[in-house]
Amino acid sequence: MVQAGDVRKLFLQAVFSRGVLSENLAKVLWKKCIEAVKAADEDVEVSYSNDPEIWDEFIESINISLNDLDFEFKSIQDELDGKKLFAMVNRKDDELAQLATDYNGVEITYFKAVVEQIILARNESFSVSSLAALREVSAGKEKINLTKSQAEILLGSFVANSWLLRSKRGRYSLSPRSLLELLPYIKSTYTDDIIECTICHEIVTKGIACKRDNCKARMHYHCFETYRRRHPTCPACSLNWPQNVTDNGLLPVGELAIRDGDDGSRQTRGSPESDSDEEMEDEPSHTQTKSRQTQRSHTAKKTGKSRNVDSEEEPEDKDGTDEEAEDLPPPKQRNTRR
């Protein structure tokens, strides 16, 4: 016998098979599920509505039904355009448990190694090159039982399954799915390395930073646009800000913050020095300028701790320049924060 609760069952089947969904797509699925139930029995008391409150009530009912399974249908705003995205999140103590359905232990270990390099990336770039990602196969203290060819295929799988993003320049960064499903793991493991938006207090891996030395203001692009419409100055230091993200006067957070040489050697937690002795043999060398002392504080804890990442200068190798770097202009120079 068809019941109103069958709408939730159909909706959950559709969501579990898709991963990350836009809010528009999620609402379309909801509407189609209602139509399917009504087609089976038109007397079932259930109807579709564009009212946001009705949608929120439906999401709440979904999550109530998922409580015993340790799942949650959760939303996040896309860091680039601010659009709301939804995904099914595993709330088990092992925050990487959801990866186990698609990957084995060795593959998960490699994924964690790549995520670590993304989060520890210099200059708040929160991204790594293909070479740096492949380096993780043999760069850590414990060698990962993968060939570089296998790792390359695996990276493609991470992107295809929405665990990582790959830019036109071939750089890997965290996807909305990772920021949703792995948030507890990221916050507990990299407490002093992540940065949070001054406005929404969510993790920022793509956005803007105030250019004043020692100012800790960081924002997503969409949060900046909303804030700037009403306020002309930085909320932390009161420096006059430009009207638009693209104007001079702001520093990038994310891939645009990368500088030549930032991928020259891998980073390790708790150490201000990079593991230069573990560089991959085919890693190109670059002239590395002394990077700023990054102050990535966890705003919730307000510990004021910082991670100082200084690199030694290496001889310039003009032939080793990443050919993908030609796609984007060089980012604005960050001021050294002390």
UniProtKB/TrEMBL annotation:
Enzyme Commission number(s) of this protein: 2.3.2.27
Catalytic activity: S-ubiquitinyl-[E2 ubiquitin-conjugating enzyme]-L-cysteine + [acceptor protein]-L-lysine = [E2 ubiquitin-conjugating enzyme]-L-cysteine + N(6)-ubiquitinyl-[acceptor protein]-L-lysine
Family membership noted in the UniProt record: Belongs to the NSE1 family.
Top EC class for this record: transferase
InterPro entries, per the entry: Nse1, Nse1_RING_C4HC3-type, WH-like_DNA-bd_sf, Znf_RING, Znf_RING/FYVE/PHD
Entry keyword annotation includes Zinc: yes
Name by which UniProt lists this protein: Non-structural maintenance of chromosomes element 1 homolog
Function per UniProt: Acts in a DNA repair pathway for removal of UV-induced DNA damage that is distinct from classical nucleotide excision repair and in repair of ionizing radiation damage. Functions in homologous recombination repair of DNA double strand breaks and in recovery of stalled replication forks.
Record domain RING-type: where: 197-238
GO cellular component terms attached to this protein's record: nucleus; Smc5-Smc6 complex
Record Pfam families: SMC_Nse1, zf-RING-like
Self-association and partners: Component of the Smc5-Smc6 complex.
PROSITE patterns: ZF_RING_2
Biased composition (Acidic residues): 311-327
Residue ranges, compositional bias (Basic residues): 293-305
Region (Disordered): 255-338
Composition-biased stretches (Basic and acidic residues): 257-266
Gene Ontology biological-process annotations: double-strand break repair via homologous recombination
Residue ranges that the Swiss-Prot or TrEMBL entry lists as coiled coil: none
